């Protein structure tokens, strides 16, 4: 039956399962009797036409002519019924084998020395035969060749035999990783200009000769479209894209040829598992090389005239014992020409990682850029990782804290003392409203606020609000609404500490209830039946203010210092929206009978955060070690809540970009939040021409004309625009404040160097994991010939249904014309008109 497969264009035809005829015309559906009736009428009409309309005696010729005419008329009725022939076949097609080539810029790295890497790691560690290994190493890892050239050499030389063996067993399709967008199909048609893009992007669609497009010659021609210009390596995104856009049931495996230096996108192993096919990982590049890299650890915010410590970490590979020079410099953002040397030290590389600390005393406020550099050593193939930059904000201002409490408590007293001595708060930054304080004291003492409902221009200069044990009657609606706006719109921080006298249930009927990380019970009562030790949740370690120790032992010792807490305020349940519980009761549960009672929880609310503490007994952290851990807890919490947004009056006009570092050709999103003197949103009708104006300057190009920009209003108080960046280097953005009549600046950097140039070695751990976790194998490039032996060709059975519309075929047309021609010839032969 193979001839039938050839006629129908079905490759790998193996079995015919049968067929049936159906009719497509609606009037025939479920009314086959009507078709039979009409065919009978048509046949009868043909006979009657010869009986009554053709003169002369009845002869055998007339009988034949009547039969022909009836058959033709019946055939016309059948054509109108649209007959369809359905044929069912079983074929055994070759399975697919996908080859995914790394298209990132790291494949353009020229490795310094020949790499004789035969230490492939796999599920059963295959070994290449001697001839393939030696030959491929010589040609594939020749000095001066890029990694992509090594792959091309392997494909075009000894491995052609392996490619031929693979092409006999599989239909091979080449793909290339394209940044974080997924994959691009490589096809011979694209290289020669033949074929449509639709066909090129559908590996299941055949074009012209089905076998020719999977030949070795076609694969080598497809390789010409492989480019290595990607800025990032996103193996996970590429595998997800293969699973999403090119899914097939006949996939034997995926060969990934890469250095596996993933630096973007989802985790590749998880994506490979979702693909559901074995990964055969072919590694390119050395697993070890001489390399230096540097990292920089700086505090996110520094205070002017306060000394901070900056840590530079130097890491080395195969350079143990060498002496190198480490330098740290700093310059204002957008003014690299004003760079100053912070320090320079010569260090001996006595370990794989070596920290070097530099003290720094900021002498000016603003956004500063720190640059750490280590000199390169002979034999380094990648030097881009020898330099790193970090941005730091140096402030000449203070954080403003507002503590709202009914009466003095131990927590209130100790927090006041801690932040009076804090360099970012100080005595000017801590203000309190005590409900029980004498009105005269509130009016005359600068520590106290005279009223809970301050004017808007004063209230919104606050950075963090502490809300203690207050009755609902003391919390005015205006205070609650201002607090919601402060947190949700301006990104402020709110800390709610439950007290033993009134409790958090007092907030249940106020606008503040919707902001809390918990749902409070308006009838709730204090639980002081027995003392307990708080239990930290696993998520607590992700928050810096919960990490009180540098080691696990110190962390346990620090929190054990809190000892047992005598009481807490229970709640109904945890608010599920954006809430993280950091500490919980060891035994008590919420109303659902399962969830432990939350004792410390944090929730994202709008642009700010709200922290809930179920008691005001944190002062017990001072029990054994004084202020050490107590100051660390509150200090880090306040820094998190207070420095996550513009501080003080700077909240009124904020210029920000969606990132501080961009790649070339990326779009920069510029957002300006603008308010008037009372922190009411500025509208387009309050600004000349309805747009904010500004300038964009390229810092690295002195004397260049700044680019003027206009930022339209997105909504009241928010102005936004997008800019396409093409040139690298530092850029300074200045937006004119129409109320203060002065510019507000921010800076960002467009990286001209790719992230792909920051690692000189292959990520062998990821390569091995991809192979092992999916049931594949791992190879070095000089073991490429082993693939043809190791990749098994499973047998697939594909059932196909071929639908042939008989009424629209040349066969049907020819049959009608043929019968009419025979009738015409017979009529002429019998002298009928």
Structure description:
The chain is α/β, with parallel strands linked by helices. The protein folds into 5 domains: 2-92 and 800-829, no CATH class; 96-283 and 761-790, von Willebrand factor, type A domain (Rossmann fold), CATH 3.40.50; 291-395, Immunoglobulins (Immunoglobulin-like, Sandwich); 401-645, Class I glutamine amidotransferase (GATase) domain (Rossmann fold, 3-Layer(aba) Sandwich), CATH 3.40.50.880; 649-755, Macroglobulin (MG2) domain (Immunoglobulin-like), CATH 2.60.40.1930. Helix content is 25%, strand content 29%. A hairpin with a 2-residue loop joins strand 24 (596-605) and strand 25. Helix 3 (60-80) packs antiparallel against helix 21, helix 10 (235-245) runs parallel beside helix 11 and helix 11 (268-275) runs parallel beside helix 19. The two termini are 47 Å apart.
Structural class comes to: alpha/beta
What would CATH call the class of the largest domain?
Answer: Alpha Beta
Which sheet architecture does the biggest sheet show? 8 strands, mixed
CATH architecture of the largest domain: 3-Layer(aba) Sandwich
Strand content: 25-35%
| CA-atom Rg in angstroms | 39 Å
Using DSSP, what is the number of strands?
Answer: 35
Unreliable residue runs = 114-141, 191-208
* Share of helix, binned: 25-40%
Q: Could you give the distance between the termini?
A: 47 Å
CATH homology superfamily name of the largest domain: Class I glutamine amidotransferase (GATase) domain
Total count of helical runs of at least 4 residues: 21
Strand order of the largest sheet: 17-16-18-19-25-24-23-21
CATH fold call of the largest domain:
Rossmann fold
Q: Globular, elongated, flat, extended or rod-shaped: what is the shape?
A: elongated
Total tally of structural domains: 5
Average pLDDT, to the nearest integer?
83
